[in-house]
Design brief:
With 110 residues, this protein is an alpha/beta fold. The chain has helices spanning 13-28, 48-59, 72-82, 99-102; strands at residues 2-10, 33-41, 63-67, 91-95, 106-107. The protein has a 5-stranded mixed β-sheet with strand order 2-1-3-4-5, sandwiched between helices. Helix 1 (13-28) links the parallel strand 1 (2-10) and strand 2 (33-41). Helix 2 runs parallel beside helix 3. The radius of gyration is 14 Å and the shape is globular.
């Protein structure tokens, strides 16, 4: 099975529960893919150590997802760690967020 690493940053913990459930279902299946999922709550990236961990996780990620990034200070931090690795991602999905975050959207070569 091919391993796909997904890293995400979300506003609230209930989104983490949904991601965890989806990953469990995919990994239980007999399909050709399995998912490693690493998640952060938006407020966690205020902590320099957790921001550094996010940056490390992004280095070997296939997919990045974020949602509801509307705090300017945190949007800037996220853009700072995401921009350098964006091109190596297969997909970067940033939706309802600050414009500078949404500009980093990418799906394949698009």
């Amino acid at each position: 099975r091919r391993l796909v690493k997904v890293v995400y940053v979300v506003l609230e913990s209930q989104y983490q529960a949904s991601m965890t459930s989806a990953v469990r279902q995919i990994n239980k299946s007999e399909g050709g893919v399995c998912i490693e999922c690493v998640g952060y709550l938006l407020e966690e990236i205020r902590d320099p150590q957790l921001l550094a961990e996010l940056q490390q996780d992004l280095k070997d990620a296939n997919v990045f997802i974020c949602s509801l990034i509307f705090v300017q200070e945190l949007a800037e931090k996220l853009v700072e760690v995401l921009r350098p690795c964006r091109d190596s991602l297969d997909a970067c999905l940033c939706f309802p967020s600050m414009p500078e975050v949404m500009k980093l959207n990418k799906l394949g070569s698009f």
